[in-house]
UniProtKB/TrEMBL annotation:
Top-level lineage group: Eukaryota
PH domain segment(s): 12-105
Protein name: Oxysterol-binding protein
Main subcellular location of this protein, as a coarse class: membrane
Gene label: LOC114463797
Coiled coil regions in record: 226-253
Length: 760
């Protein structure tokens, strides 16, 4: 192979070619001949050395392959061996990476199969395992017997062929002889050979019968042994299940006894809550009402003491609440249940029929690697992406999708207790991620000054407005208010990086929710979104990180943890857990669920320190009431897989509406062309809009330079001003953000949009 030829596979699955290997700081990179075969990567100084001298070999089954830049990559098996390699071109490097990844996957698979086969037939002496070893020895003995019989059959077959051929020759010679010749010797010869053939045939028949008999007898024994193993496995599973139930019951009984003992030590609680002998109805009530949830990483929740749950029977409610010193409004579970059921009936009927479908997504193929290979390490907003990887809505519309579950804020506005209200705000925060689970398409980057309104005042009681207030870095401001008594505002700045195998998107802005009636103000920030399998495999999205939500009026906190997706975890995937605490750090509610399906919350009755966790930290044990569902994801519309997996709300976001501003995302031509399936025209229009935006920005920067150079002006500043938002320093949350300054809805009512720039 010459230096100009790329590495190519050879027969037998071998991949070979020239690469440059780092040797030391004196010699630097040296040209070496590399051979990839059977999961092993070996290298030689020259191709001629392949027959006698190997300079080094690394096993890919335990190796890690990492890409450094366009031509360099590293292969390491954990420290003992590390190869720093460089290809002559980026294409050649990618060919090697692909071949190495495939070879590694195959090597890992072969190693796993080898381990499985070793488990089935362990090569240990019988004395090491009395039962398993004896059974293995018995199987080996049976296999040797059957093998011996098979060899006998093969020998008999060879003899039959030999003697049959000799008998056939003798009969042929007998036919060719003349009638007058001596026939006696020939008849004797034929008779002898026929006798040998008959004996050999009988031996063959006997050997076949022995083989079949042995195979039949051993088959019955092996079937019986297999059935015995199955029965033992079923019995073991049943035993383990019983042990797990017994362990759980003992753990509950122990914790219940601990709580009862601590309660009896308090004279105010010793004679309250009924008699010490519990009746059958109480036991049935406990088994029906309590539900234990577990999060081994953070905390443990267990059923609360039985005396708390007599609230359901309605007896001694007031006395018990007074005895345990709890506020009536904060403990009333009836309000929680009614609050979640009554809001739907209060929602207003829609005044117009919204669309339920958009044109199906065309099946256009485009190589993602051809676009992304030159974008590693760059900011996502600066990558010129074709519409093939987008979805026909803008980032402003995607931001407005957070309001799909606005009813959670409606319910929160009716809460009398701030801690309960915090649970609804936390559920609203989690619900905003439910629309992303299948949405791997990239939203359109909004143009500077682009807006999007979502007017659902007559249908749902709220109005929403977004504006792109900055282009570099890209930042969008969002303001929404409701007649039900809440206000939501946020400013999102995305920090995104392409890392080769995955795309990481970190929102940097703050979110605030303010309730009019109580004047409770909550603030929090979003978690990191990661898009995996950018190059190979099916794209999938994960949300991970932690959210600290604060009520600035009362000092209440809610800590939410989004567990990262793990293929090796036995826990529920996409799990979210959280604890709501007051200003003194006392926990009042536990939240648990998944960000793609539902969330539940439980009232905490008692908390205590449990056993140490795996990391040596002491876990907190919360005794809770039965969990109640606070949010569940709406099902996707029929055929969503052909419509970019849009939700029912997302399908209406780009629906044309009269009276919106000229800068509204619905009027964006490239986005409209993509929705209609005209992707080539959409790409051309997208390039036109981006070039127009660059020209406007250069003109704005030129004017800023001229203004800065004049004596009247001071420093160099970007003179772009948002149209509907203004930047402030919030004295409460200590955040700098753009807030709505008013005027948009009044301009819409009067139809006066003269102040809007021409961005499309």
């Amino acid at each position: 192979m010459t230096e100009t030829k790329p590495p190519t596979p050879t027969p037998g699955g071998t991949y070979e070619g020239w690469l440059f290997k780092w040797t030391n700081y004196i010699k630097g990179y040296q040209r070496r001949w590399f051979v990839l075969s059977n999961g092993l990567l070996s290298y030689y100084r020259t191709k001629a050395e392949m027959g006698h001298t190997c300079r080094g070999t690394i096993n890919l089954a335990t190796a890690n392959i990492a890409v450094e830049d366009s031509c360099n990559f590293v292969i390491s098996n954990g420290g003992a061996q590390t190869y720093h390699l460089k290809a002559s071109t980026e294409v050649e490097r990618q060919r090697w990476i692909t071949a190495l990844e495939l070879a590694k996957a195959k090597a890992v698979h072969m190693q796993a199969e080898s381990d499985d086969s070793g488990d089935e037939f362990p090569g240990v002496p019988p004395s090491s395992e009395p039962s398993g070893g004896g059974r293995s020895s018995e199987i080996q003995s049976a296999l040797r017997t059957l093998s011996s019989k098979a060899e006998d059959l093969s020998t008999c077959n060879d003899l039959i062929v030999k003697h049959g051929s000799a008998l056939q020759r003798s009969l042929f010679e007998l036919e060719e002889m003349d009638a007058g010749a001596d026939m006696g010797d020939k008849f004797r010869q034929v008779t002898e050979r026929a006798t040998l053939f008959r004996i050999t045939s009988n031996a063959m028949i006997n050997a076949c019968q022995d083989f079949l008999s042995l195979a039949h007898s051993h088959s019955k024994r092996w079937q019986k042994a297999l059935q015995t193993e199955r029965d033992q496995r079923i019995r073991l599973e049943e035993t383990l299940e019983q042990l797990a139930k017994q362990h759980n019951n003992l753990e509950r009984a122990f914790r219940g006894a601990t709580v009862l003992a601590s309660s009896c030590s308090n004279p105010n609680l010793s004679n309250k809550g009924g008699s010490g002998n519990r009746d059958a109805s109480d036991e049935e009530d406990d088994s029906e009402f309590f539900d234990a949830m577990e999060d081994p990483a953070e905390f443990i929740t267990v059923p609360a003491d039985p005396k708390y749950h007599r609230l359901r029977s309605g007896s001694n409610v007031g006395s018990l609440i007074n005895d345990i010193g709890m506020d009536d409004q904060s403990f009333d579970e009836v309000s929680l249940a009614s609050n979640s059921e009554s809001t739907r009936s209060l929602e207003l009927e829609p005044v117009r029929q919204r669309r339920t479908r958009i044109p199906d997504k065309p099946n256009y193929y485009l190589n993602l690697w051809s676009i992304m290979k030159n974008c590693i390490g760059k900011e996502l907003s600066k990558i010129p992406m074709p519409v093939n990887f987008s979805e026909p809505i803008s980032m402003l519309q995607r931001l407005s999708e957070d309001l799909e579950y606005y009813d959670l804020l409606d319910k929160g506005a009716k809460c009398q207790n701030s801690l309960e209200q915090m649970c609804y705000v936390a559920a609203f925060t989690v619900s905003s991620y439910s629309t992303t689970v299948h949405r791997t398409g990239k939203p359109f980057n909004p143009l500077l000054g682009e807006t999007f309104e979502l007017d659902r005042l007559r249908e749902c009681g709220y109005r929403s407005l977004c504006e792109q207030v900055s282009h570099h870095p890209p930042a969008a401001a969002h303001h929404a208010f409701s007649e039900k008594g809440w206000l939501l505002r946020q400013e999102i700045t995305l920090a995104s990086k392409f890392r080769g195998k995955y795309l990481s998107i970190t929102p940097l802005g703050a979110i605030e929710c303010i309730f009019d009636k109580s004047n409770n103000r909550y603030s929090w920030k979003k978690v990191t979104t990661t898009i995996h399998n950018i190059i190979f495999g099916k794209l999938w999205i994960d949300q991970s990180g932690e959210i600290d939500m604060v009520n600035h009026k009362t000092g209440d906190h809610c800590h939410l943890k989004f567990a990262p997706y793990s293929h090796f975890s036995r826990d529920v995937q996409r799990k979210v857990t959280g604890v709501v605490t007051d200003k003194d750090g006392k926990a009042h509610y536990v939240l648990s669920g998944t960000w793609d399906e539902k969330m539940e919350f439980s009232r905490i009755m008692q908390s205590s320190k449990g056993e140490n966790g795996t990391e040596g930290r002491q876990k907190t044990v919360y005794q809770t009431l039965k969990a109640k569902e606070i949010w569940r994801k709406n099902p996707l519309p029929e055929g969503a897989e052909n419509m970019y997996y849009f939700s029912s709300l997302a399908l209406t976001l780009n629906e044309p509406e009269e009276g919106v501003a000229p800068t509204d995302s619905r009027r964006r031509p490239d986005q409209r062309l993509m929705e209609d399936g005209q992707w080539d025209e959409a790409n051309a229009e997208k390039q036109r809009l981006e070039e127009k935006q660059r020209m406007v920005r250069r003109e704005r920067e030129r004017e800023a330079v001229i203004a800065a150079s004049s004596p009247e002006e001071g420093t160099h500043q970007d003179n772009h001003q948002a149209l509907w938002f203004e930047k402030i320093n919030d004295p409460v949350s200590k955040e700098t953000l753009h807030v709505y300054k008013g005027g948009y809805w009044e301009a819409k009512d009067h139809g006066t949009w003269d102040m809007c720039p021409d961005i499309f």
